Amino acid sequence: MSETNLRVLVAEDPPGEAGTSLRLLFPENEQRLNLTVVSCISTLFPTIHVVAPEIILLDLSLAQPDPLEVVRRVYRSAPDVPLIVLAAENEKELAEQSLREGAQDYLLKGSMDPMTMDRALRTALESNTLEGLADLLRDPVTGLHARDGFETMGSRSMEFARQKNSTCVLVCARVENLSAIRTQFGSTAVERTLSDVADLLRGSFRRTDLLARLGDDQFAVLAVDAVEPSGPVLRQRLEKRVAVLNQDLGPWGPLDLKISVGFWAAAESSTFTEFLDRVEGGLRHAEPAAQLNT
């Protein structure tokens, strides 16, 4: 693990399995761990701001009666800090749901030996580093990931989904009339259109989904832990929102947005780049969303 002191905040009832595993992983005489343990949720949130942890571990049993709401609150309080939830075997489904609410990983009680803990911490820190690097590659107009950052984070998300035997839905969209808007109305109208599409995507997907502007007129969203039937639902949601957006656009409207949706399961051998190429290729045959709603 890190050569410097790692700041870890654990929320669990003492004596806790996570705290014990961390102390075995980081012997006190090596002084490589700054461990803070809280035993109630009301103490957790102010402690986050005092300790400034690099990793947070949250016991779902401590987060009753609404563990997912607590996960959401922790994520909102520290969106840049990896959150790992701790769950009993009968809470595994709840733990998997927490991944859609901001948690990065989960550990099952009874399996938190030092080796498992070490692997979870390393994965969390490496993923957070990738996110930081990807943030440096954001599109300046929309604030979304650029293609390089999206491919980096998408590959990491797909590998994580493969380990969890999970699934992904990828949505690609292209503004077909962006060149015409640029020719007729100039760069200001183009930037406004791109910002409108970015806002539309932010409002249509979960905050844990990856959003990107892949090129001049093209966007993409990767939703992890999204089942196959959700693909058509996501498409319909976007189509409806495009129709609403087109009612309020300026003189350069309506927006001509084509959408392509793809599904990936852990049993597939394809890489994220291959998955992205397949869904992007579907844009050639996609019907404009604006036309589908008029």
Brief synopsis:
This protein is an alpha/beta fold. It contains eleven helices and nine strands.
Topology, element by element:
Layout: E1 6-11, H1 17-25, E2 33-38, H2 41-51, E3 55-59, H3 67-77, E4 83-87, H4 92-98, E5 105-108, H5 114-135, H6 147-163, E6 167-175, H7 178-185, H8 187-204, E7 210-213, E8 218-224, H9 230-248, E9 257-265, H10 272-281, H11 289-292
Parallel strand pairs: 1-2, 1-3, 3-4, 4-5
Antiparallel strand pairs: 6-8, 6-9, 7-8
Helix pairs in contact: 1-5, 5-6, 7-8, 8-9
Description:
The protein has 294 residues and is α/β, with parallel strands linked by helices. The protein folds into two domains: 6-133, Response regulator (Rossmann fold, 3-Layer(aba) Sandwich); 141-292, Reverse transcriptase/Diguanylate cyclase domain (Alpha-Beta Plaits), CATH 3.30.70.270. It contains eleven helices and nine strands. It has helices at residues 17-25, 41-51, 67-77, 92-98, 114-135, 147-163, 178-185, 187-204, 230-248, 272-281, 289-292, and strands at 6-11, 33-38, 55-59, 83-87, 105-108, 167-175, 210-213, 218-224, 257-265. The chain has a five-stranded parallel β-sheet with strand order 2-1-3-4-5, sandwiched between helices. A four-stranded antiparallel β-sheet has the order 7-8-6-9, with helices on both faces. Strand 4, helix 4 (92-98) and strand 5 (105-108) form a beta-alpha-beta unit. The N and C termini lie far apart (57 Å). The model is unreliable at 290-294 (pLDDT under 50).
